[in-house]
Amino acid sequence: MDDLKGFPQELTGADRPMVSFRKVGKAYGPLTVLDDLDLDVAEGEMVSIIGPSGSGKTTVLRMLMTLEEINGGCIYIDGQPLTHMPKNGGLVRANQRHLRARRVDIGMCFQHFNLFPHMTALENCMEGPVQVLGMPKTEARARSEELLEMVGMIEKRDQHPSRLSGGQQQRVAIARALAMRPKVMLFDEVTSALDPEVIGEVTNVIRGLASEHKLTMLMVTHQMGFAQDISDRVCFFYGGKIEEQGPASELFGNPQRERTQQFLSAVKEAV
Amino acid sequence: MTFFEFLVQYWPRLLSGAGVTVVQFFLAAVLGIALSVTMGLMKLSPNRLVSGAAITYIEFFRGTSLLVQLYWIFFVLPLFGLTIDKFTAGYIAVGMNIGAYGAELVRGGILSVPRGQWEAALALNMTPAKRMWRIILPQALVNMLPPWGNLMIELLKGTALVSLISVADLMFEARQINSSTFLSAQVFGAALIIYYIMARFMLTPSMRWLERFMARKMGRA
């Protein structure tokens, strides 16, 4: 990835997007996963990403979390370049220090929760604020308990993850990510590993976040009903591109593209 | 002379030897564990120079005989102007040898921690050092405790070699008693039993306790 030409050093203006993918490409060797992706997410917007497996939807979130390097283009977060940093009037690939400075704005929840098994629910939530933000323990504890209360896990605060069900673990994982007060939250198939009867407890937490908070959210999901319910916008990915996007009601109610129609009808049949 | 009569007469020397063995064991273990963690981490470094240094250390100390290493440290290094007393040379040689095996255990333990744990720590924006010390190593430790138990027993038995550079450990005392009394069966029988007791009734329970302790920390017990 060379220095970028023709990309702005920062995005300005009151209506600038919270997240902006500009011509972002990702390839694993000869395999192109994402092709010149352009995607803007406004502050407070809830965007769902749907599509068949292998369409690159999880990669979008992983690139934004800086878990994957991008091969082309640039990602901006809150107006500032994330994957790059300004230098000599241009943009060069970000170093670790720049990534750490920008990453504070982003939180992520994973399909397999990834709670730290050697810590209790409360310790999991306190770890980031104390170790990364340098917050005093009493303050971090208060903040974490408040969040555990919000996700309905306060009674289990002293349990280790091994004693919690999948749905409970995922709710703790959401609290852990929120404890860092990110501006953007990423949900990567957070209900895919859950038993059907506990999916509701997790989606309800996310539903609450979407309605009550000004959080910007990107969610990859296979649950079409849930996506339709809470998203401001839905993006249908196919073959590393956004095949179609629009308000949830339009994309699900009246899809324009053939591939979208095929995908949605195939999903409906499966249910 | 019966075995009992033998013990009554020689127990002070056997005990003093066993004491030296225990001290040699602890010092070698401390050195070995420190080296294991350092070298295990170094071998995982993306920096070729750093990982190369660790690989060289591991290959050398794992690939050559402990007895030869001991003789090198005690007899050959003085020829290059580095003289180490026999007691120190003893536990340094054993510790460095065991550290080479331990480094591989540490490396394997770290690699056995699921990828998602690294990613979750990164998503919390932790520095690489905190990721390692607070998230990865504690979990790696749990995974590698059982093989460490084996290694500690190897280490204990390995300390018997320091008798060959005249460190007055259990084996050294046994050989001394043997050469003056020719009570080979009694003296080496006693040594055998003492090593077994130390391994079976002191080391193994300690490692079990540590495993249970860590399991509790993980909320598994």
Can you describe this structure?
The complex is a heterodimer of chains A (271) and B (221). Chain A is α/β, with parallel strands linked by helices. Chain A has nine helices and twelve strands. In chain A, the strands form three sheets. In chain A, strands 8-9-10-3-11-12 form a six-stranded mixed β-sheet, sandwiched between helices. In chain A, strands 2-1-4-5 form a four-stranded antiparallel β-sheet, with helices on one face. A two-stranded antiparallel sheet of chain A has the order 6-7. In chain A, helix 3 crosses helix 4, helix 3 packs parallel to helix 5 and helix 4 (137-150) crosses helix 5 (166-178). The model of chain A has no long low-confidence stretch (mean pLDDT 92). Chain B is mostly helical. Chain B is built from eight helices and no strands. In chain B, helix 1 packs across helix 8. The model of chain B has no long low-confidence stretch (mean pLDDT 93). The interface between A and B is medium-sized, with 31 and 23 residues.
Beta-strand percentage of chain B? under 5%
Number of helices of chain B: 8
**Side-by-side strand order of the widest sheet of chain A:** 8-9-10-3-11-12
Indicate the CATH architecture of chain B.
Orthogonal Bundle
Order of helices and strands of chain A: EEEHEEEEHEHHHEHEHEEHH
Total number of distinct structural domains of chain B: 1
Strand percentage of chain A: 25-35%
Query: pLDDT average of chain A, as an integer?
Result: 92
Helix/strand-derived category of chain A reads alpha/beta
DSSP summary, beta strand count of chain B:
0
Mean of residue pLDDT values of chain B: 93
Classify the helix fraction of chain A into a percent range.
25-40%
| Helix segment tally of chain A | 9
Number of strands of chain A: 12
Using only CA atoms, what is the Rg of chain B? 21 Å
